[in-house]
Amino acid sequence: EKGGYPHFMLKEIFEQPNCIRDCMRGRINVEGTNVVLSAIIDHKEKLLKAKRFIIVACGTSWHAGLIGKHLIESYCRIPVEVEYASEFRYRDPVIDENDVVIAISQSGETADTLAAIDLARRCGAFIYGICNSVGSSIPRSTHTGSYIHVGPEIGVASTKAFTGQVTVLAMLALTLAKNKQTINNNEFLKIVGELMSIPDKMEKAIQTNNQIASIAKVFTYAHNFIYLGRGYSYPVALEGALKLKEISYIHAEGYPAAEMKHGPIALIDEEMPVVVIATHNGMYDKILSNIQEIKARKGRVIAFVSEGDEVISKLADICIELPQTTECLDPLITTIPLQLLAYHIAVCKGKDVDQPRNLAKSVTVE
Ligand code: M6R
């Protein structure tokens, strides 16, 4: 049931604060001093010894994997590769019993991800699943794993599953880092504290809904969109662009902002909307100069910034303020307005938001 919402997608976007509370329940203690993903503790030996992690996934789950790479490399100091399951399975990859494969899938039924798991298992790798759908094929074909516990996702465009996946990946990185002693205690406590405040900050991000709905009216008839981010925000840019493509059928590309000067900046003119994730974190000054480069070519900048930002608001055509959090958890906040932007543009265009053309919720064929 849509619970009073016009579409499942909007319901699922709005549900995210509670989904993330459910996802963290029983895994972080009330004092905020410990994070325990039981699958990690149960297989501690294997995971702590791993020489390399390989994340396999498709679509939105692959975007969550890119954030997972950043988290695991930063805090656990283990090299991580992120692979499209469809490429990995046909590439005769170098993989052995020292590798841990993390398979991420909302449905737990994606054919390419299942085949990638199968291949990695035959090569002797240890397989860890991150899934939503309980009892589906992927959790049954892995050695262990963690469910994201965000409830059934009906809309074809994945929303709450993405934030659930990122939350589990953050808890996974924290649990491993603590056990590996690759994170100092102050940093650990700071991130856990921030993680606990994410649901409330998500509520605030959702309050941008009306503002985003009016922006959608301005850009309904745009033919192209560019999405830019750096660091942890780069996968968010990819995810924002994918959401727009799949439900509004507008061509959209996500790029790491600094790559613009290597080609795509040639696309910028007064017709080109450029969505920039420019929250206050380590990459702020860099992204600020990327915005200046776009404005110099007359691009129309829609910037998502941290509350109280007074610099970018003077530069960007449109500026939306979001609650600030620690850099590695920023995707959990910045993704929400991009989901809303895609949703409202698709609604303005009269598209079938929950069942976009040519797409299925579970891709069970390759
Ligand atoms: O169920 P999965 O997470 O394995 O699905 C992977 C992709 O098919 C899925 O994320 C797809 O990209 C979504 N429609 C994106 O919104």
UniProtKB/TrEMBL annotation:
It is found in: Cytoplasm. Transmembrane segments: none annotated. It is an enzyme of class 2 (transferase). Residues 43-182, 215-356 form the SIS domain. Keywords: Aminotransferase, Cytoplasm, Glutamine amidotransferase, Repeat, Transferase. It catalyses: D-fructose 6-phosphate + L-glutamine = D-glucosamine 6-phosphate + L-glutamate. The active site is at K361 (for fru-6p isomerization activity). GO terms for biological process: carbohydrate metabolic process; fructose 6-phosphate metabolic process; protein N-linked glycosylation; UDP-N-acetylglucosamine metabolic process. The keyword Glycoprotein does not apply. It comes from the Bacteria. Its EC number is 2.6.1.16. GO terms for molecular function: carbohydrate derivative binding; glutamine-fructose-6-phosphate transaminase (isomerizing) activity. One of its GO terms (cellular component) is cytosol. Homodimer. Catalyzes the first step in hexosamine metabolism, converting fructose-6P into glucosamine-6P using glutamine as a nitrogen source. This is Glutamine--fructose-6-phosphate aminotransferase [isomerizing]. The lineage of its organism: Bacteria, Pseudomonadati, Bacteroidota, Bacteroidia, Bacteroidales. The chain holds residues 249 to 614 of 614 of the full protein.
